[in-house]
Task: structure prediction
Amino acid sequence: MTITGERNKIDSLIRSYTLMARMNRARPGARQSQTLYYQMLAEYYTRVRNAHEEGKLVAAHTVFFPTEILYAMDIVPLHTETTTWLIALFLREQTELLIKGAELGLAPEICSPHRGVAGIFGLNAIPRPDIILWSNLICDNTAKSGELIMELNHSPGFFLDNPFQGSAGEMNYLVDELKDMVHFLEEKSGRKMDWKKLSEIITRTDQEIELYREICELRKAIPSPMSILGYLELISADYLFPGQPEAIQYLTVLRDELKDMVKHGRGAVSPERFRLMTLFLPPLHLIGYLGTLFAELGAVSVVEPFFTRWSEGKLDPDRPLESVAKKSFLIPERRSMYGPLSQQALQDIADGAEQYKIDGAIYWAFMGCRHTCATIRVVKEVLSEIDVPMLTLDCDIMDPTVNSEEEIRNKLEQFFEMLEDR
Amino acid sequence: MKNTRLPTLERFREVNQTFPKTREILELKQKGKKVFGWLCTYVPEEIIHAAGALPIRITGYSQETELEDGNAYLYINNCSFSRSCLQMGLRGEYDYLDGVIAGSTCDGARRLFDLWRHYIKTPFHHILTVPRKCTERAQSLYYEQVSQLKLLLEEHLNTVITDEALFKSITVFNESRELLQKLYQLRRLDRPPITGAETMEVLNASFRMPKELFNQYLRQLLDELAISDVTHTSRARLMVTGSVMNNPEFLRSIEELGGLVVTDELCTSTRYWSDPVVLDGRSPLEAISRRYLSNFPCARMVPSDERFNRIMQLARDFRVDGVISQTIRYCVPYAHDLPLITAKLKEIGIPTLALDVEYGTSGSGQIRTRVQAFLEMLEARKK
Result:
């Protein structure tokens, strides 16, 4: 496979989002939040593209990395896994990345976004980042992907060791790790950390989390106002713009739109026939198809315990690094998906099912995500105890050779028929 | 086949053949001894031992087996080691355990522990946070974790783990490491008196029986080896690396083809015993904690340099002609390291054969064919 021009993928993404934002603006009845979402994505990759010309460093990082720190230091973040997802979702050019990952010697059991990340670097498909940052949150893949990328990219890197459980000692450890990281970034960028700016980011991150909670509350309405596409947009805001004005603006507009829909009794799909809990992520390259299919079948995802239910707790702008550390223990993905698997996490899934009045649950069993799939049985039992059926669908979130549209349709239709019979 | 040359090896075999329900363990249980299972080499056995309990390693089936329960509970995309262990737990093979202790070492181990705690009613469960780095700060955090484990064990067993008891345990476990070091020294010889498969039988027994008894047996075995006139030659001297593996039949199948496994980098072998606890003026608990975090690293640790350097040093010390890297499917840490370590070994002129395997595999079929081809290639290089 040939990539023409080293900036191919980034330029393609920018073109794609700019076009989508323009089309959305012109479309009657289009959500303003969705236009903002596309603008946000275009802006994100434009910053990556222009960083060097503007004298800024680009830091490529793995998922759930505390990029608040990068924003505070005016370093441009590049979210590696999200970039591979977006290439799959919007460009459908993931196959060449996966092939390159395989050529580099990565086994097919390694999750496809990480094989794709290696493929991106192996193909020089993006402008070369200056620094590689990675951590063990949220799996062995994130912990182990950094070294190969560093080697492929010929750049320095920093591994952030994020401890497993949240004891006081572990929180202190994480804060000290963050201090080391700040020191590393200062050394590499020649810029000092702007602590005032970081505090402001923390203040906004707290607002952002509150907006997430409000949005989740609104989704309890019958009919529920947010489509399956909306939930993927929602998580991208924090992944790409944590504590940034762009995320606050997007989430505020989204919340107001949802509030208005709830007030007027409008749902994301009409009529709403099936309220669903979504566990893990559906195949991202099929998301457009799934949006159409869900609308056709009257199905809506109302709650996603692994991605949208944040833990209770507030951040403290006067203690910015401690807040960055604390945030990594508040994110939904940590509590329900990463572990340790506690009774509380399981109870939260049961509570979510009841509070959101779901009819059924779909567990997208992404074969590359081992620690998530290990909970399929136990989650199924928890839901079964409250008489909620769960469909388990084997899938890959990026690899187009694993699932076909027809197969997904058949399985969903069968599941919905079963739900209807009940 | 009974080994008349090395009668003590037969004793180790007996232990392995009946494990987990070995006579020694069941007799100790009858006498009121507590038995704790541990799930990863980052769990400090000396503390369990010093608490008066018997530490044993939880392993899975020693041959390829249908893992219906393991698949149903852990799903098919967790490594077959985790699924195999969980299935044995679910089927009551470890029903005598008084506790299970794990480390947050990899996704498979974490989830195995999660589901063991959820479904299997072992009286005591604990998981240690194991840092991924081996810095001074990480050592402090791990010491905190190990101290907490000590407190929890004291509380659960209603006992006090004294420094004196810890010193004694360190002595016993260090002796074991020292004896295993002697055993491995013999494998450096041009014509080693023991095969890789036989060594693995010894190692399996090392974490399945009381250490004092194991040490006694191993001393006997070393005496027997000293007077044995049987030695082994081969088409190629090999090192085995990669995921957890403790099936001697896998090594035997390689050796039947004419290769001789002279060393390894496995958590059931070299990485289990290689580094002693060094007191160096530290408290026994701190010395134990330091040893377990800074021991020959698993692929989970970051950066990988220490693991890679040690592998290359072993390759040089044992004068290996080739490396067989076996990765259990869905063992992500080792899968990520494979391209990097393969390149490093190539730089020093050592070829690697990468095998995707399932835990418990005996090395038949296609594996055998690939090993055969690898040995032929190594022989051709020598000419």
Remarks:
- Chain A has a mean pLDDT of 94.
- Residues 276 and 302 of chain A are 6 Å apart (CA to CA).
- Residues 8-193 of chain A form a domain with the Rossmann fold fold (CATH 3.40.50.11890).
- The longest strand of chain A covers residues 360-366.
